[in-house]
Write a structure and sequence with these properties.
mainly alpha
Amino acid sequence: MRTLCSSTLIGEFFVIGFAGLVAMKDPDLSMAQVWTVSGIAMFLCLLLCGLVTRPGGVALGWALQIALIASGFIVPTMFFLGVVFAALWWASVHYGKKVDEAKARFAAQGDKTSPSGA
């Protein structure tokens, strides 16, 4: 699960950075505001790469997905990209857990069938 979720979060890191560049064109926002919010969100993406397998890591990831969708109020394209990344996040969590379970089953089968005298 960690690999799939981390890949999604790294993709989000770059999308948030590019959205920050687009948001700088908004005359109502200062550069400091844009990069404070974007920087915090980008830092959270990196932080979550390490925390995704810990308790609450997936929930924090979902909170980040909601924030990404909500950023569409500033950069309208982010409504679409936020939904795309939320779907990727769901797939990463869902299929990542399945892969982890399959690995555990495979390892358990390997332990049962390993030759004891070889």
